[in-house]
Amino acid sequence: MNNKKKNEGQTDFSYYGLYLLDYLRTNKFEQATDTAFIRERADRAAETYEKARLEGYPADGAQEQAMDTLLRGLHYSRYAILREVVENEFADEVPEEKREAFVLKLLPLVGNVFSVYDLSDDNFALSSDYDLLYTELTGATVLYLDEYGV
């Protein structure tokens, strides 16, 4: 029954819609509950695939273009970046079984750190800003752990 409720309203999503929904949920993007956003992105991805095929691209090439359209601007979620920091820098301090809860608890508290960075830039991880954000999140996590622990 829980599964049925979780999947309610999703049965009419296309392949791209379901893929995007899963991606958004897994990476804890705010848009995970925005049905209109998901449908619009999925429709654009399907159109991109169809156009590419009509232009002679092989199925794999058309699929790559469609996925690029589907995920453009969604490569870096706040959750995924913070989780990476916690996993890489605090593996000894935050046990694996507590990381999910810890990241979810810490995430709203470091929102202001994220606010000055453009996570929608698909090349964000290659920029010096990514290194600055990573460093700031590491510092914020140290402060939190010193004050409150896990």
From TrEMBL:
SUPFAM superfamilies: PG0816-like. Gene3D superfamilies: PG0816-like (1.10.8.340). Coiled coil: none annotated. It holds the Pfam family DUF1896. This is DUF1896 domain-containing protein.
